[in-house]
């Protein structure tokens, strides 16, 4: 049985210094998983998710959005997010840097990489897929689905899983319809799981204390979306026995 090793480090996008957090098994990781946090930036919950994935055999890295650490002030987070999104190609490049850092630091004996994201992070991983990034799988949890750069036909290489709360006001039905049409046009292998009556932010129990009314935790949607992710992981990152399992 492999132990879990954790490291914190800095990496760069141009002259922007960013903070990374990685948890991985000491031997034989199944795949590398990039975790892209919410608009609030990397938090304890994201670090907990990384250690959980490491316990399941994955090299998991939490990336940084702005180089500002976790943000308590939602107005400041929105300001930084809007500035980052203002240049769509620069936005995508911020996270290509994180993928390269994951590849460099993980102990993978293969090139199997996936990315998962929450809220703004869900938007980010979908942008990675749209740009044709060479990763096996992306998973969006309550992510935003609109884009200024829709996918071109045949460009998407990743399998896609979208886990969405039907009552999420940040992703109205019109946005979901446009996303599905985009995925059909692009020829993407895309699964969408929709949870009726579920609001934005359904994977984070601390959202029950949020003053933002459309943001609430939902235990069932959290469980079901995690199960869907792990099921797709098993499909994409086929389990093979390691030498210490024979």
- Structural category: alpha/beta
Count of discrete alpha- or pi-helical segments spanning 4 or more residues = 6
CA(first)-CA(last) distance: 12 Å
Question: Beta fraction of the residues?
Answer: 15-25%
CA-based shape: globular
Radius of gyration, in Å, reads 17 Å
Q: How many β-strand runs? A: 8
> Are there runs of 5+ residues with pLDDT below 50, and where?
none
How do the SSEs run, as a string of H and E?
EEEHEHHEHEEHEH
Classify the helix fraction into a percent range.
25-40%
Strand order of the biggest β-sheet: 1-2-4-3-5-6-7-8
| Arithmetic mean of pLDDT | 94
Main sheet characteristics = 8 strands, mixed
Outline the structure in words.
By secondary structure, the protein is of the alpha/beta class. The chain contains 6 helices and 8 strands. It has helices at residues 44-55, 74-85, 88-105, 120-130, 173-186, 219-236, and strands at residues 4-13, 16-25, 32-36, 59-62, 113-118, 137-141, 159-165, 189-195. It has an 8-stranded mixed sheet with strand order 1-2-4-3-5-6-7-8, with helices on both faces. The radius of gyration is 17 Å and the shape is globular.
């Amino acid at each position: 049985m492999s132990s879990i090793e954790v490291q914190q480090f800095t990496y760069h996008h141009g002259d922007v210094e960013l903070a990374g957090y990685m948890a991985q098994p000491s031997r034989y990781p199944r795949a590398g998983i990039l975790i892209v946090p919410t608009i609030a930036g990397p938090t304890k919950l994201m670090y907990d998710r990384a250690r959980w994935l490491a316990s399941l055999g994955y090299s998991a890295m939490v990336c940084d959005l702005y180089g500002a650490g976790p943000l308590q002030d939602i107005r400041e987070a929105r300001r930084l997010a809007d500035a980052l999104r203002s240049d769509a190609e620069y936005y995508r490049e911020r996270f290509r840097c994180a993928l390269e850092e994951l590849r460099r630091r993980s102990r993978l004996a293969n090139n199997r990489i996936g990315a998962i994201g929450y809220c703004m992070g869900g938007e980010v991983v979908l942008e990675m897929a749209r740009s044709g990034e060479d990763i096996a799988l992306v998973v969006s949890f309550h992510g935003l689905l609109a884009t200024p750069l829709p996918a071109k036909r045949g460009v998407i290489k990743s399998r896609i899983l979208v886990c969405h709360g039907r009552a999420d006001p940040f992703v109205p039905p019109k946005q979901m319809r446009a996303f599905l049409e985009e995925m059909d046009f692009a020829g993407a292998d895309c699964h969408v799981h929709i949870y009726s009556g579920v609001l934005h932010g359904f994977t984070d129990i601390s959202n029950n204390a949020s003053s933002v009314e459309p943001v609430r935790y939902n235990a069932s949607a959290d469980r079901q979306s995690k199960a869907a992710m792990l099921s797709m992981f098993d499909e994409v990152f086929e389990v093979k026995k390691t030498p210490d399992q024979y």
